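ESCALATION

Customer reports they have been waiting on this structure for their group meeting. Please prioritize. Original submission:
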Amino acid sequence: MPEFKPQRARLPVPGETGIFGLYEGPIADTRTHAWDFNSKLLPRRRTERKAWIYLGFFSRDFYAGMAIVDAGYLASAFSYVYIPSEKFFIEDRQVRPLGFGHDFDGTLNDTWRLGPYEILPTQDKIVFNMRGQFDLSACFTRRHNGLSTIAPSDSMRPFHFTYKEMLMAVEGEFIGTGRRQKFSGDFGILDYSKGYPPRRTEWNWLSMVGKTESGKSLAVNLVDKFNEGIENALWLDGKPMALSTAHFHYIRPAEKSIWRILTRDNVFEARFRPFGARSENLNAGLLRSQFVQPYGTFDGQIKIGEQTEKFSGFGVTEDHLALW
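Update from on-call: job pushed to the front of the queue and completed.
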């Protein structure tokens, strides 16, 4: 099984080598000023740097996804809710040119605001609020059990960074369309990403929380076609373990297909059955993004050492293609 490296204090600086890998814990300093302002006319800050915070809550009774994205010359945000018992889905989204200032660094120490959306990170909590066609608020209590990935990009761009933290305790509330529903539990996930992904970026992604048949908590983050699979990991009773590269098998349209997902090291194998999906087809000239994010249920098995356990869970997958 692959292993992760000791915690790294900062992102790479220009000219530094040997930095790619999976690191234990968050990286404290994710400022990228040394890379961002390489040109006065077309600085990487606007043309190449992308940063986002995605927060998810996945349980038997309630699904919610919420995000704010700084894509340089364009910013966007979205939130959605799905209630399985009612087959009820609702979403909201915002897109704004130059939505964040020239000096916005986009770290987990910054306040992120875009229109009615805000994400307020602190050392121990991340608070999300959105007031619009519906109201959605949530407080995620950080466990600091995450993994940081520094991965290569392409020949023209230096690196891409992502930090995944799983099984966070969440307290939240949804208000809209005559409904008022509170949600809570250790079902929260964080995807904080920042860097310079390839001009043409494609990925499949899986984020899941659940339980094994013996009652252990389980969370999984997998990606294929992106970051060389370095970020793949599972959390068993809160303890992270690195995984090998992954394969996603499905038929488009993705939200109508039963997915089969497995890792090359044979540690993780799952079927994913979507309830539905949030999708987007954005064409803003220099930036294009097409993705579908199905939400649904998982079942499968994990193998740790000589022991194999079945599991069930809840979460999302994604089929994504971007030109940015």
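Sent to customer with the following note: The two ends are 34 Å apart (CA to CA).
Escalation resolved.
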